[in-house]
């Protein structure tokens, strides 16, 4: 009689590996988990991969009940959505399925993901299964917690301003994506033509970070981030009116942000203070995005500059 195929979770496989390493015969695990000796041998051969993958999941507080080690098609977007979801859970905010899909589309656009990504119900089902999220549907369209966190932040900001931050030394920075050479989605066509010739969207993406103070009297040089380290268009350029960096997909990440903060933002603010003949504490407000380093990390760089995250 043919044995029924049994697929065990990563948690079970990890327990089997630990049992084998203690010297317990493989047949004992085979009997306990209802599998053949060949399955136990296969798990033993893949033990390093299984333990490594399980460790990554455990450190990220993800689901060890998964049965396969297959990653998400777009790991960066998947990770960004999951981090956002966990942040909201930590704040006690209810998250609905449609809102999670909407956020997935947002991160996909911000990170320059696959243009065909739709964040369908199928994607949502797989996302919940990957991360062990049993049910996230809630009733209602608004999340009162968002209003509450914004109100709390306003109170905190007022207290910060009372500590001596001048309007000229309060800055805000944010990133946006720029798609170059994108054709018009709609164009004019004569009545004799059924449709105009289709064009594929350009994948030439640039991330731009903009930063200025609240009085509008000081603007930090733009940060441009593209895929290419040495664009041909910059071949003869000597003095760029912006700071240039590169990343293989043209995205912002914590390393680029921290480098810009340390080597561009802080020196330029100091230069501005010298120019106007004033000194004082500096406050930088930024989004709490996965691509940004922690506030604690940034605040260790210069004691006169403090970074605060804006509420979601």
Automatic annotation (TrEMBL):
Residue stretches making up the HTH CENPB-type domain: 65-137
Coiled coil: none
Matches recorded under Pfam families: CENP-B_N (PF04218), DDE_1 (PF03184), HTH_Tnp_Tc5 (PF03221)
Subcellular location(s) per record: Nucleus
Any one GO CC term of the record: nucleus
A molecular function GO annotation: DNA binding
Domain of life (superkingdom): Eukaryota
UniProt keyword annotations, A-Z: DNA-binding, Nucleus
InterPro entries reported for this sequence: CenT-Element_Derived (IPR050863), DDE_SF_endonuclease_dom (IPR004875), Homeodomain-like_sf (IPR009057), HTH_CenpB_DNA-bd_dom (IPR006600), HTH_Psq (IPR007889)
Alphabetized Gene3D superfamilies for the sequence: Homeodomain-like
Protein name according to UniProt: HTH CENPB-type domain-containing protein
Species per Swiss-Prot/TrEMBL record: Trichuris suis (pig whipworm)
Organism phylogeny: Eukaryota, Metazoa, Ecdysozoa, Nematoda, Enoplea
């Amino acid at each position: 009689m043919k044995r029924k195929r049994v697929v065990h979770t990563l948690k079970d496989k990890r327990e089997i590996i630990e049992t084998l390493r203690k010297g317990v015969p493989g047949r004992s695990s085979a009997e306990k988990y209802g599998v053949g000796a060949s399955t136990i041998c296969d798990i033993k051969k893949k033990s390093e991969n299984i333990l490594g993958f399980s460790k990554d999941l455990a450190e990220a507080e993800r689901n060890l009940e998964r049965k396969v080690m297959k990653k998400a098609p777009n790991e960066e977007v998947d990770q960004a959505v999951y981090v956002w979801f966990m942040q909201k859970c930590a704040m006690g905010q209810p998250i609905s399925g449609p809102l999670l899909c909407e956020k997935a589309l947002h991160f996909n656009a911000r990170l320059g993901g696959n243009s065909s990504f739709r964040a369908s119900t199928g994607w949502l089902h797989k996302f919940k299964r990957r991360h062990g999220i049993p049910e996230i549907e809630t009733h209602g369209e608004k999340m009162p917690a968002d209003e509450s966190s914004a109100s709390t932040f306003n109170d905190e900001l007022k207290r910060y301003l009372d500590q001596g931050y001048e309007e000229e030394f309060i800055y805000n920075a944010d990133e946006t994506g720029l798609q170059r050479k994108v054709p018009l989605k709609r164009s004019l066509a004569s009545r004799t033509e059924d449709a105009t010739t289709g064009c594929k969207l350009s994948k030439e993406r640039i991330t731009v970070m903009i930063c200025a103070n609240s009085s509008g009297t000081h603007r930090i040089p733009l940060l441009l981030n593209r895929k290419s380290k040495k664009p041909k268009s910059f071949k003869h350029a000597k003095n760029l009116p912006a700071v240039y960096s590169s990343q293989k997909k043209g995205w912002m990440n914590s390393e680029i942000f921290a480098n810009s903060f340390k080597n561009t933002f802080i020196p330029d603010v100091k230069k501005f203070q010298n120019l106007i003949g004033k000194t004082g504490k500096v406050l930088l407000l930024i989004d709490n995005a996965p691509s940004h380093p922690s506030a604690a990390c940034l605040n260790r760089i210069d004691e006169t500059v403090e970074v605060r995250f804006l509420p979601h």
